Amino acid sequence: MIRRLLIVLLVLVAGFAAAVWMFNFASRGGVHDVPPRMPPAPEQVARGAYLARVGNCMLCHTERGGAAYAGGRPVQTPFGAIYASNITPDAETGIGGWSAAHFRRALHEGRSRSGRLLYPAFPYTHTTRVTGADADALFDYLRSLPPVNKPNRPHRLRWPYNTQAALAVWRLLYFRPETHVDDPNRPREWNRGAYLVQGLAHCGACHTARDALGGTRDVLDLSGGLIPMQNWYAPSLASPAEASVAEWPLPDIVQLLATGQSPRGSVLGPMAEVVLHSTQYMDPGDLRAIAVYLKSLPPVSGDSDPREVPQASARVLERGGKVYAQHCADCHGAQGQGVRGAYPALAGNRAVTMTETTNLVQVLLHGGYPPSTAGNPRPFGMPPFATVLPDADVAAVLTYIRSAWKNGAAPVSELDVAQQRSSMR
Predict the structure, then answer these.
(1) Helix 269-277, helix 358-366: angle, nearest 10
(2) pLDDT by residue (tens digit) across 118-140?
(3) What is the mean pLDDT of the chain?
(4) Which residues does 246 contact at the CB level (< 8 Å), separation at least 6?
(5) What does the DSSP 8-state code read for residue 281?
(6) How far is CA 141 from the centre of its chain?
């Protein structure tokens, strides 16, 4: 009897998912099946190439050591691996048989040429806001590339995440096709920045918290979140205690995005890849527009009252101080003052004192490397200490740094370090 009830329940769930798919996500209107025959205009290709840089498309769609845009790179998720598709103009394995309308539908509705639902590792929750003109320019750039015959790799997702029915339900919860609309009460520069941040640049794909199903209720929220499977935390762009730039001068924000370093800070981890492959190539006017938009984000509440922060023991602080003197002070200074243009100051550094300590453990264990850019071709990096320091020393020195020089942040526990070290293996 119980078995029959379970079967009936599964049938009902599947039927509901199918209904959701058909009635809520069926493609609106016809899609032209004939791919363009004329080669794209050079100026259209150039514009598309620039937009591909803005969206950092090549990074995901290029396998390590493989041909550009030929796919095959795995995107690891809590539900399994998703392999990026071949988007070169190969007629058999790429998008050579696609029309401009097919490509628009992929960006705006998250559907393939055949109409199948695409996985949101492809950030269509953001590219849905890309204008039709920009989508067409991207498509023209991609079809100007050399075709590469490389079959797409099947995804390796666990059941039921590998089913269209489950994906349809996910979309019902988290996705609606949208268009970007300028705010008439804002200047043109702000609207341009909002269009880039919310759309093709898809900043919220990292800087937004996700729930157990990998979704977010508001893709425009930039209040920070852990990046699944990467063991990095993308800090809040609205919190003064994390990565808000509301008080930064505009030139410092532009410099950070263009070079990976500015008088106010530097980028590491996944953001270093964004600067390396994307933002350093962006037009200065677009970088300024992004800076204007980010400065305008309404502030969100920061950390708890400093008086409530737990205090580390004298023994841990003594141990951490010794480790710091031996391994850190030569670069970061005895008082955590750093060296301008080389090694960041640790005293008063928000990256050091914010509540989430994932990035601190990551950098200390595996090193920190800013990107090499045209504006900063030889950046100073930090070596890894995973094989040098045991968990107790890592926890102690981080605790020391977070409490020294009036930093006043909570301790890092040895358990925190052990858990993160084990998850990186």
Answers:
(1) 80
(2) 999 999 999 999 999 999 999 99
(3) 90
(4) 240, 295, 296, 297, 299
(5) G
(6) 23
Q: How many whole angstroms separate alpha carbon 294 and alpha carbon 222?
A: 10
Neighbouring C-beta atoms of residue 40, cutoff 10 Å? 19
Tokens of 90: 């190969």
The pTM of this model reads 0.89
Is the CA virtual torsion 201, 206, 207, 211 positive or negative?
A: positive
Give CB contacts under 8 A, 24+ apart, made by 207-214. 207/234, 207/235, 207/236, 207/237, 208/234, 213/170, 213/173, 213/174, 214/77, 214/78, 214/79, 214/120, 214/170
Query: In the numeric block, which tokens belong to residue 338?
Result: 């750093």
Calculate the CA 237 to chain-centre distance: 13
**How many angstroms separate the most distant Cα atoms in the chain?**
74
- Calpha distance 105→211 (Å, rounded): 27
Structure token pair of residue 60? 């995901």
pLDDT tens string 261-292: 999 889 999 999 999 999 999 999 999 999 99
Interval 182-231: pLDDT, tens = 999 999 999 999 999 999 999 999 999 999 999 987 777 899 999 988 88
| Cβ-contact 177, 117 below 8 angstroms | no
Q: Which residue has the tokens 């199918």?
A: 18
Three-state DSSP at 369 gives coil
Residue 368: beta bridge partners?
382
Q: Which tokens in the block code for residue 1? A: 């009897």
In DSSP terms, 77 is beta-bridged to 80
